[in-house]
Every structure is written in C-alpha cells, then in structure tokens.
Amino acid sequence: MEKNIIYARPNPTSATRPVVFNPEICTGCNKCVNVCQTDVFIPNPIKRKPPIILHPDECWYCSPCIDVCPKDGAITLNYPLMWRIPWKRKDTGKHYWYGMKNPPPPNTRPMP
Amino acid sequence: MYKDGNLHQWPYPIRYNQETEVDTDVLILGGGIAGCWAAISAAKSGAKVAIVEKAATITSGAGGSGCDHWINTPNPCSKVTAEDCIDWERENANGYINGISRYIAAKESYDTLLEMEQIGGKIRDTDDEFVGADFRDEQTKFLFAYDYENKFHFRVWGKTFKPALYKECKRLGVKIFDRTMATSLLTDGGKQGTKVIGATGLNSRTGELYIFKAKATVMSMSRHSRNWAFSSELTGLGQFRPNIVGTGYAMAFRAGAQFTLMERSVRGNLSFGISYPSYGTGNAMNTWYPCTIVDANGKEIPWTDRDGKELTDFPQRTHPAKDQKLFAERGMAYKYRRPDITPAMQDRVKKGEFALPLYADMTGMSKMERRAIWGLMVGNEGRTPVPILKTYSQAGFNPDKDMLQNYLMLGGDWLRGENLSYVRIGGEGPGDSGGLVVDWNLKTTLDGLYAAGDSLFAGNYHHHAAATGRYAGRKAADYAKPMNNVKPTRRQINQEKQRIYAPIKRKCGIEWKELNAGLVRVMQNYCGEYKNEELLNIGLTWLKDIEKNVAPNLYAANPHILMRALGVLDILACNRMIIHTSLARKASSTYLGFNRLDHPKIDPPAHHKWVTLQQENGSVKTGELPIDFCGDMESNYEAHK
User: Fold this and answer.
1) What ipTM was estimated for this complex?
2) pLDDT in tens, B417-428
3) Residue B286: strand, helix, or coil
4) Residues B128, B77: Cα–Cα separation, whole Å
5) From CA B144, how far away is CA B71, in angstroms rounded?
6) B25 Cβ neighbours under 8 A, 6+ residues apart
7) For residue A13, what is the nearest residue in chain B, using CA coordinates?
8) Smallest CA–CA separation between B302 and chain A, in Å?
9) Separation of alpha carbons B98 and B96, rounded Å
10) What is the chain A residue with the closest CA to B399?
11) pLDDT tens-digit profile of B9-55?
C-alpha cells in the first residue's frame, strides 16, 4: 500500500490551472510552450508528457497555445471561478454558465 | 510545479554573462504590430533587419491574438478625409494629440490595410457571409463599424493579421530574436544623448546577453504600464498586456531621448487582476457596438443621441445625428459624440424603472448584426476568438437564443468596472498616454532612433501602430543606408551587464512582485488624482530611496524571473518620469486627468502646451513645446513622406 506523503508546500496562486491538458491526447510536442506570450510553461522533463504550468499567475488567457495545438482536445482553456459569466435563454428564462454541471449541448455553429 | 516535493530544475541551459553579437542595418525593438510592420517595411527597402521580442513574435503584443477594428481610415468608400480624422481626435483630446503620427496614420492607413491583405490578412467579406448588410459595401466587400453612413472604421478579420505579418517577416529574411527582452540602448561613445547605435537584449530562458549593433533602431515596445495598479496575485489576469511594463521608455530615457505627456493619467479600474474576460460580458461598446441591452424582464434600455434624446429605431445607432457630419469611435466631444446607452441608465435602475441584472440581447437584433458582433468581432478581437467565441460556444452559448449577462451596472464603465481615483492608468484604453517626442520622420530626439505604435506620445490603436510602423521602418532603412555599424563601448556594455545581472548574484532578497506593489503604492499616494508640489516631492524622495536602498536587494531565481524583475526596475524609472513631468505642469487639466491642488485653474490658455522631459548629463530636465508644434500637417507630410 503506497504511503500518501503530505508536503509542506506554499499557498498556490488563485487560478492554478489556466489551461488543462488531457494526457491521453497531448503528445508533449511543446508547441504551446513556445508560443505562450508570458512563457508560463516549461517542457515536461519526461518526454511526450504534457508541459508543466510553472507560472499560472502570469497567464493572460490570450490562447494562442490552444490555437497552435495540433491535437484537438489536448489543451483547453479553464476560466477560474471568478471569471465565469452566466447567460439567460430568452424564451425559457433559464440561466446557464460556463463550467456548470449538466451543461447545455455545445453550440457547434458559432457564427450565427 | 512540484515533483515529489522538489522543484524542477530549470529546463533551459543557463548562460548568464555569455555574450552574442549581432550586426544589422535596422534593429526593431518590440515585435508587436508596429514592430512587425517596421521590420517588413525596412526589409522591403533593402535593409538587413532584426527584431527583438520578449515573447514569441507570431502572436505577441496587444494585437497579437486578434483585432476586430481598423479604425479612422479614409478610403474610397468614404468621404471622410484625413483632416476629419484629426479633427475628431483633436476635439476629444482638447488638442493633446500627436498630430504627426495621427496624420501619417490617416494618410497611409488605407494603403497599409491593402498591404495587409497582400501579406495574407483577411480584410473584406470574400466569403460573402454578410451580403445585404447595412454595413457592407457591395462593390469592395468591405465591412464597416460604428458610423455606417461614413464608412471609415473597418471591421476586419484581424486574427489572421499577426501570424501573416510574422510569416512575411520570415519570408523577407528578417532575423527574429524571440524570448529576448531588450534592456538598454547602446549609444555612440556610450554617452547620454548621442546617436543610438544598437541595443542589448537578455534571453529570458537562458539569461545570455545579446549585443545588437544597428545603423538605425526603431522603438516599438509600447508604452508604460502598471504604474498605479498591479495585482501581485494574478499578474496576467488583467485588461492589458502583461509583458508591457515601459521598458522601452526607461531605455530611451536613460539614453537621453525626449518625452512628453507623461503627466497624463485617468481613473483606472480593477482590470488588474480581477475584472472579467475581455469582451466576455454582455455590453454595448467597442467590439459589441451597437448591441441591444435589456433588463431582467427583457425591457430594452434606451439608446440616446448626443443630445440625450432617445433613439427610436436601430439605424439611428449607426448613422450620425441630424446636423452631425460623422461620429467617432469614442470620445465625449459633442461635435463627434456617438450614440450610446442612455447615460441616465444607472439612475433609472436605482429608481426602479429597470430591473437588474442587465443582459446583452443579440437575439432581438437583425441576423447580420448578430453575425457581425458575435461571429466576426468577438470572433477576431484580441483574446476573444478562443477565450470567448469558442469557449462560450463549447459551453453552450448561442447568440440566436441566449443573452449574456453584464455585471457592471451601477458604476464605472461597461467593460471593466468601477473606476477608482487612485487606480490610475497612463492612458491605454480610454485615451492616449505619454511617450516619445518625434519629428515628421518619426525620429526621436536621438539620432538613429525612431519610434512607432504606442511608444509614440499620444499614440493608440492597431491601425496607427501598423501605419506608423510601416512609415518608421522605411525612414529607418533610408537613414541606415549610408551608415556604418558603430562599435559600442566596452564600458557601456559592462555597466549594463552589472545592472541586469545584479538580481541573480544574490541568494535571496525582495521579489519583483513586492517591489512592483511598493512602487504602485507610492504613485497611488503621492501622484494620485489630486497632486501638489509637496506630495510629488515626497513621492520622488521615496522612489529615490527605493532605487538606492531596496532595488539593490532585488532577487531573481532564474532567467524568467530576472526578466520580470528588470521589468519592475523599468516601472520605477517610468514612475520617476511621471512625477518629474507632473511637477513641471503648473496648472490643472481636465483632459490630462491632472488636478494640481496648488495650481487649481483648469486648462488656462497659457498652459495649453506640451510639457517635455529628458535627461541631459544625468540630470532630469523639463521643458515645453507649443500645442501645435507639429506644424501644418499637410505640407509637412508631403515634404517628409
């Protein structure tokens, strides 16, 4: 049985995961690392593993990292809780918001 | 960040103190929109060009992740002239505009736009997605924003621009040094005030030093920032570009260049660290103009014209008022003021006429307007195509059916929240900030140094960065042609090395965030909304103390943190520039956001002028220039272009 080690690590910044990697899809090509405006990532020392988010506090949420990624779904934007905006469906009056449980189906036709 | 309780080793080779020399004809400092255009223009003029960019040029800078509008551009679909463009800017700014760069932009912005298309940017509705729209010119397929009658603000697919500019730079053989922060200008003989002969640059991954030798240099590193406001918690989560800290200004100031308008500041807001995703809340301004806004019960909030009269139909939002020649993209000057959501909105909410929360209701607008605002504008503006359009769509948002909520109903501006008197900004969003003084060649007061984009005093906007970059690039190339590279002095390089590597020589000390926060506090307290001589002098004294006794303890654990730390030292330099200039303006001014309790007369005619600032032999010197020192714009432009 593996012993669960507790570490004395400092307080994290308020938004720790500005982007989220899917390790099943990400190939560790590091294109995102090299396009990041604020250089928030470092390549993972283990090859083919997703980059490490070294400076989550410096992320500007500009997202060329997501655009440049060659594998759909490998990296997604993750708005911190204080940056989530709701909207209301006009005919039903129901509210939805980014990150909700049981979200509505994705709108696959963004251009109206 | 942590691996088994330990920190990762720095993944890039450490090369502190290592020097690499680069010879070039034209050196571009800052690879943003202005910088890339300057590089392309200089290269097309036959010069060997190098770009020094702190991030990755392909999508760096304010215009890197997109652009929705190319504004203020006279063109064949419009009767608007360059003089009209200058007039509305002048009216809004009470004369405090850069007549030189704004006129150049007005004259050359359309040609620049066409060149953007040649380079690979999409500037017109070639896919016919907007056929029949009121804002489309059927012949050219151009789409327009704001004033549909006068058609001089273009709606563009600006997400395509920066990557296309980058590709063009590469195609033209421009040498691009990414992850390289420019740190100082090199001058002839290593003296202050002499010709600029190059620059030093620090690689933010390896810490190695680049020594760039150039025959001409273009300063395109944008303006100052984070002087009054800073979120030490989330340095990236703000409205403005986190890489921009005024390093370009600090560099040019140390080299002896002249600045003006540095005393200007306006109330800022909590965009530093808290706010909301850019254009990611329902609103009716800029990218979202002229969206319908409704209250919680679906009741429409009225739009009003410049006289406060409620509009009765949609087209009135996009056509000038009766007796109005044209309306401007922004600004309060009556002559050109555009329609807006009623200024009485907040009062009427408080009185109970409208119920909170408010929403941007695209569902009730025409399909073409909905497509324009959401699909095109939000689809192309900086930080919106993926963060807003794609992300919200994936989360289920549908502009045909859904209304996006707005939080900022009872104070401040639509987009960014309550404006606070002590959280000031140098200009940025609502106006234009101080910067480098230039002549009609866009040359600064230092030979060999040109300026473009937001580095120009009172410079702003994408189209202005593009047009002035393009102009400065060819001027720099022309200047460079007969020149030889000058060898920089060893002493100047060594002094710079000592300065920039100091933070890595110690094992602990004050970190960059604390230093920035401390500097911001000085400005908030001693150079805030209300100033006087005593406050400003205390501010200067404290800044001098910080420079002498605190900054030497600055600590950087690795090259990335070193980059951030050096950036904060440049903020300190800009803060001193702002306070010195503030001391020299002995009158108050509405447009300049400048209130001197000891000189309370607002905009007295004798003080309608520019206050200049520079260093001479290490001493700060202030002076003045007449408000219209740019001279007759048409004849000067024709003589110099």
Assistant:
1) 0.95
2) 667 777 777 755
3) helix
4) 18
5) 9
6) B42, B47, B48, B49, B214, B215, B216, B477, B480
7) B233
8) 19
9) 7
10) A112
11) 999 999 999 999 999 999 999 999 999 999 999 999 999 999 999 99
